[in-house]
């Protein structure tokens, strides 16, 4: 049996063999990577940016030629769709396959136009460096460059029909102060050739879109019912097919075909930003300016739903798209309705329930207790043409109303006793407080004298001595007048 040390040594030998194999593999991969990198660098070095054919290769591909030939043949035949094609599965239809290829080709044409646009900008930047910041669209830029050429004075160049009037004015003023110089003849020739190629690609793209538009009634009937065949074809071409359009959110569908607008310093209040091909629809054009952005968002949302219905062939008749269009129209009409007139508020329903408090002695007493007095009535009244007296004088402070205006200027008023007060006084008068001959509790048997201080006396002594009732000191029934004798 092998001991523990022998097993460890065997494991170490296995590890060393594996490491050597991994090192050999890594060396082989590194050699292959170096070969690939060297090959790529060779391709990059072989690429000549001065040659237009090495930059733009789409027009010379067999795929571009075949698709354009099929599109031209289909446009010559017309857009008659046979009945048996309607029953065919959409993915198996050769014409739908051609439409999908056209959508892919339109995207490739867009990318190729961008590449050619960069080539033109690099070459023409020496002549007019400010032009690329004034004209952003590649096709417009190519047309302007082809029209201007090496001309120094732009007043001799007619740019009408190529650019808006405001942009033409800005381009003319900027060209008079530009720091550019005329291009050499060979560079100018390459630039003009690139412009012609960009315009040719743009014309090919229009043919592809025309073909797709002529078949949109069959391919996407619901989407065409909402935005029209032309706009539907442009949306599909930009998105890269009906399936790609169906997977796209509505906020991105709204931006398909949007261009960066150069207002040349003018106001942006009336310009429509973040709106693409949807602004070319009939619904958008007939919407009032204040509601156009809301209508654009609504159109984008419904177009996305219609594209999803068309992608699964849910409604080949286009009925769902027409329902969406009618819904959009009703919503826009609802937005334009004036607000409802403010209705007069009716009076509340009178309270016909019986009152919880009934009349009686307690209620009458409470009313008499809280009734307004004659003095307060006079203070609340004012006599016409007579100024009232006030606490601070000259109309300042609290006014006294008609108090004191009947007499000599003093605030006098005869206060009449209320019925309640009269009853209380009468009841108190009739009440007897006698205690049957008992001594009052307030009577004291202590007297304070200046001689002895506190003296104890009998309180009943004076009463017995003076008498009570008709007896008195001066008029007594038994007493007589005293006669004083004179001496």
TrEMBL record:
Question: Which Gene Ontology cellular component annotation is one that this UniProt entry carries?
Answer: U4/U6 x U5 tri-snRNP complex
List the coiled-coil residues: none
Return the Pro residues bias intervals. 337-351
Q: What is its main location?
A: nucleus
Q: Which GO terms describe its biological process?
A: spliceosomal tri-snRNP complex assembly
**Compositionally skewed regions (Basic residues) per UniProt:** 355-364
Where would you find this protein in the cell?
Answer: Nucleus
Q: Which InterPro entries match?
A: Nop_C (IPR042239), Nop_dom (IPR002687), Nop_dom_sf (IPR036070), NOSIC (IPR012976), Prp31 (IPR027105), Prp31_C (IPR019175)
Biased region (Polar residues) positions are: 467-481
- Chain ranges of the Nop domain: 219-337
Asked if the record carries the keyword Nucleus, the reply is yes
Keywords attached to this entry: mRNA processing, mRNA splicing, Nucleus, Ribonucleoprotein, RNA-binding, Spliceosome
Which superkingdom heads the taxonomic lineage of this protein's source?
Answer: Eukaryota
Q: Does the keyword Protease apply?
A: no
Bias category Acidic residues: which stretches?
11-34
**What GO molecular functions are on record for this protein?**
RNA binding
Recorded family membership: Belongs to the PRP31 family.
Q: What is this protein called?
A: Nop domain-containing protein
